[in-house]
Specification:
Blueprint: H1 3-27, H2 39-66, E1 70-76, E2 79-83, E3 86-90, E4 93-99
Antiparallel strand pairs: 1-4, 2-3
Length: 102
């Protein structure tokens, strides 16, 4: 299996881990719920580990395409941002900065 294929599968699995994290987070917000206790951290960690392969492949592609001098990026467990003018908590987000040479 090529690294490009592995990284694309990692992106899909990171999305699934993010969805699983969101579901277990909502399911365990009730104080009486025993379902998924401790799973939130496992799903969040899995998404972060899979993100390493995704960003490595993205780095290679950006360097080949744009000839960038430096690429920086990270996954976030969540952020607060506007949706329709109202504050909203987003689940998994990714940020990428590309620095081009002169």
């Amino acid at each position: 299996m090529s690294f490009a294929r592995f990284s694309s599968w990692s992106a899909y699995l990171a999305a699934v881990a993010g969805l699983a994290y969101s579901v277990t987070f909502v399911a365990t917000t009730d104080d009486d719920a025993r379902f998924g206790e401790g799973l939130e951290g496992a799903f969040l960690l899995a998404g972060g580990v899979l993100a390493v392969a995704v960003f490595a492949a993205l780095y290679e592609r950006v360097r080949e395409t744009l000839g960038a001098q430096a690429v920086a990026g990270f996954f976030c467990g969540g952020e607060i941002g506007p949706v329709g003018g109202n504050p909203f908590l987003h689940g998994f987000t990714a940020t990428l900065a590309v620095f081009l040479g002169r």
